[in-house]
Specification:
Elements lengths: L4 H19 L8 H26 L2 E2 L23 E2 L1 H18 L16 H18 L4 H17 L12
Antiparallel strand pairs: 1-2
Helix pairs in contact: 1-2, 2-3, 2-4, 3-4, 4-5
């Protein structure tokens, strides 16, 4: 049986955060960049969640609303609202759009900065885009445009993120 409850819960939280934070004035935050960071992290989580679901199940339902009450899940005549599965490439399109939002809103981070390695940043969003677009290409007849987006995202991450590959088997 398909158990995607926790993934949809994460995607819903991210969507809800994005929805409400977008509507908040910048004065509620320490800066525009702090508001952008929160929005970018929410977009990253939603992108990662839908990408993960597409990789596991292919076609999955896309939920483009904030579920804040169980009343939203029941029709007026008492039936459970059913959302049909969307084709895998549409799910990947959604994940890519959210990933691009995250890249546009986040900044690069580095070891020692608050939240580094535990929160999303521009480098992790570019790495996600590299993986997502390469997966997309593999599911769409070796889509050359997606392969190029993957190369561009990986190159930007490598050249700008300050991250480096660690050889976990080398003696140090």
């Amino acid at each position: 049986s398909v158990n995607w409850k926790n993934l949809y819960r994460a995607a819903n939280w991210a969507y809800t955060i994005y929805k409400y934070v977008t509507a908040m004035p910048v004065s509620m935050f320490t800066s525009q960049s702090e508001k952008d960071r929160i929005l970018g992290e929410a977009a990253f989580i939603r992108s990662l969640t839908y990408f993960y679901m597409a990789r596991i199940w292919g076609d999955v339902p896309i939920v483009n609303l904030s579920i804040e009450s169980s009343d939203q899940l029941v029709t007026d005549d008492g039936y459970i609202v059913r959302i049909p599965r969307s084709p895998e490439l549409e799910v990947l399109d959604l994940a890519l759009a959210d990933c691009n939002k995250a890249i546009s809103l986040l900044q690069y981070s580095a070891p020692g900065k608050t939240g580094w390695a535990i929160t999303a940043n521009k480098g992790s969003a570019e790495a996600l885009k590299a993986h997502l677009t390469l997966w997309y290409a593999s599911r769409d007849n070796s889509n050359a445009a997606m392969i190029q987006q993957s190369i561009d995202a990986a190159t930007s991450c490598i050249n700008n993120s300050g991250a480096s590959l660690i050889d976990y088997v080398a003696e140090g």
